[in-house]
Amino acid sequence: MSKIKKRIIIHTGPGKTGSSAIQAWLTQNISFLNENGVFYPQHPLSQEGISSGNLHYILEKNNETEKWEVSESKLDHLLGEFNNSDFHSLLLSSEFFFAHIVKLHALMPDAEYIVYLRHPVELCESNYNQGIKRHGVIVKFNPPKVIANNTLKHLEGYFNFVSENLFHLRPYEKSLMVGNNIVSDLLSILGLECNAEEKTVNSSFTFPALEFKRLMNHFGLKGFEQQLDLALQGCTIGEAKYSLMDEAEFIRLNTDNCLLMQQFIDSFNFLELQPLQAQFKTVEQRPYKKQQANIEELSSILEYVGTVNPDLYSQLTILVRSNPNLIIDNNAIYEAFSVEPSATPKDSLISTELLNYINKFTVHPGKRGKICFELGCFYSDSGDLDNALMFAKAAIYFNANNMTFRGHLNNLLLEFNAQEQEK
């Protein structure tokens, strides 16, 4: 009897292409996969249904570089378990795998890779929104000068080492997916048919919810980040479909994107991507929304938070009232909490003596703020909060719109305010 040829299929994302929905479904349907000969290693899901997938089965973090690397011992153990089983396919999923495709290919020459391709102009906004949701971003959206389709760029590099025939490049576009959803689409690559019910994971924020979260990021949030994220994911107040990019910018970037996509298709003969390219060419821009939420919008979101999580509402209120002196680009957030903002006016940010002294520096005037910022960082690292604040404020005096300087000063003010409240 001939031995069944085993397949290894690795879903690599990349980021913001539905990986959370895929991993949630796979984890909750292990029995279905096993019954159909597919081995998908179990992994935990967060309360929101989010995970890193099978990351820890084959990667480990280098303690010195803090970077994830392929662990040959972990991989050998996993492959041994798979090869000694009756399963015909090993399915792995993690966005972290995308950066390690070349190394994984060297260790598993026959492994296949699933990569979803998303419209890069849409992706740059999605990444920005994710930064607000999970990474404390406070700056307003600024469209890139040029489109950077990093997925295609990485793939072109990988093709120097890995045959393009080992890649399943799939469209991140429901109308082009098998079964019109990403789970059914992925399962089709394994030869499985299933009317999979795709659940929404990591929902996008409505416009006012996004702005509320961005403005609240100025206050640090700390232990409230996850609670607020979870609360706002369920909020339906305001526009759900919107763009922070105006039409002219969208058209410019999309034209560049279509050119890059066509060059990629022609270079590697990926004719199956032509329908996706056609979608890119005809995609309609979502309604443009100027990024400045008003008091009514912010108050509505705050009221919603109070309804779904009263304890969180109380904690946020205390946080904002305890920090009325932060520099924020929209003071309506203070008004929503009935707090009178008290940020230091520009003419009081620096003493006359210090201003006169700094103006004597024999450097370009534009560098004076940077020097003050670096001095503020030095004193902050040294534990001298008073001098750190003095120079951080001086940096803002010289460069009021520098968001790095603003963020640094606000962090120092949060520390100062906390110390004052403890006295």
Short description:
This protein has 423 residues and is α/β, with parallel strands linked by helices. The chain contains 19 helices and seven strands. α11 runs antiparallel to α12.
Plain-language structure description:
The structure is a single chain. With 423 residues, the chain is an alpha/beta fold. It is 49% helix and 7% strand. The protein is built from 19 helices and seven strands. The strands form two sheets. A five-stranded parallel beta sheet has the order 2-5-1-6-7. Helix 9 (207-216) crosses helix 13. The protein is elongated, with a radius of gyration of 25 Å.
Structural class: alpha/beta
Q: What strand line-up does the widest sheet have?
A: 2-5-1-6-7
- The arrangement of helices and strands along the chain is EHHEHEEHEHEHHEHHHHHHHHHHHH
Please, what is the average pLDDT? 94
- Approximately how much beta-strand content do the residues carry? 5-15%
Number of helices: 19
Spatial extent as radius of gyration: 25 Å
Shape category: elongated
Q: Extract low-pLDDT stretches.
A: none
Distance between the termini: 81 Å
Strand element count: 7
Which sheet architecture does the biggest sheet show?
A: 5 strands, parallel
In helices, the fraction of residues equals 40-55%
Descriptive keywords:
alpha/beta; five-stranded parallel sheet; elongated; two-stranded antiparallel sheet; 423 residues
List the helices and strands and how they pair.
Layout: E1 7-11, H1 19-28, H2 30-35, E2 38-39, H3 55-58, E3 59-61, E4 68-70, H4 72-83, E5 89-93, H5 101-107, E6 112-117, H6 120-134, H7 150-158, E7 167-171, H8 182-189, H9 207-216, H10 225-233, H11 247-268, H12 274-282, H13 295-308, H14 310-321, H15 332-336, H16 352-358, H17 368-381, H18 385-398, H19 403-422
Parallel strand pairs: 1-5, 1-6, 2-5, 6-7
Antiparallel strand pairs: 3-4
